[in-house]
Amino acid sequence: MSDQSTDPATEAFIAHRNLLFTVAYEMLGSAADAEDVLQETWLQWVKADQGSVRDQRAFLVRITTRQALNRLRTVKRRREAYVGSWLPEPLLTTPDVAENVELAESVSMALMLVLETLSPTERAVFVLREVFDIGYDEIAEAVDKSPAAVRQIAHRARRHIDARRPRRVVSSNEGRAVLESFHRAVETADPQALLEVLAPDVVLMSDGGGIKHAALRPVTGVEQVARMFAGGIGKFEDRLTAEPTVVNGNPALLVHLDGEIDGVMAIRVQDARITGLYYVRNPEKLSRLTSATPLTLR
What we know:
53% of the residues lie in helices and 16% in strands. The chain is of the alpha+beta class and 298 residues long. The longest helix is centred in the N-terminal third of the chain and has 25 residues, at 56-80.
């Protein structure tokens, strides 16, 4: 596409690329799959009669949504056979994403996991309406439903998500403060500090993809989670290091073992304590943490 940088079709695609990527990523939870969707969108876009396109953004979003829906139905079957817990592919994001509280929440590990519980069409409608505030008529064209049906789907999806999402959105400053406390507790191997920063009902999910060791099921409860951390820190001692980063618009720790990336741990915060820990160790999901520049997402 770089050789056609002066072409109007290419310029339009590039102008909306971050938006299209975010739509695809929020629908799929995979940057690799989102990039494939963008490639398919591009191929359809350059074949379109540009002169008949009244709204380039709407047209591109419609193509992207349809391609993502097709792929989502395929990956859902693939995830049913996934070894252990499945977590979204983490993305390094720029500080401005973290400052946009609503966008940061929409791409957080916690909400992305809730989106997994929606049907493909519900997920598409929720993402387009709630995250990007796209009109019902435009969404209807993207998902091949009537505007009235889209309104019903949006209401049902919103009710489902609201019952499972955090009670309130946490500011970026509060999230960073909790991460700092957690980071110190891990670095100093202080069990009491760890107990103080973890909520009583904290849940730890780890994703090794059958490649790296990870708990096959979520670990629930502060005592159990703290015990797992104590065991891991004690086993590897000085071989483990962690540094703060921003993943999916939210604070996280980039974990190294013997100097190599072992994984990334995102957190979910409520009432100044960690209620969710999401540790992605699957190496197939970690390549963007070193090779990609942070994303703005919009």
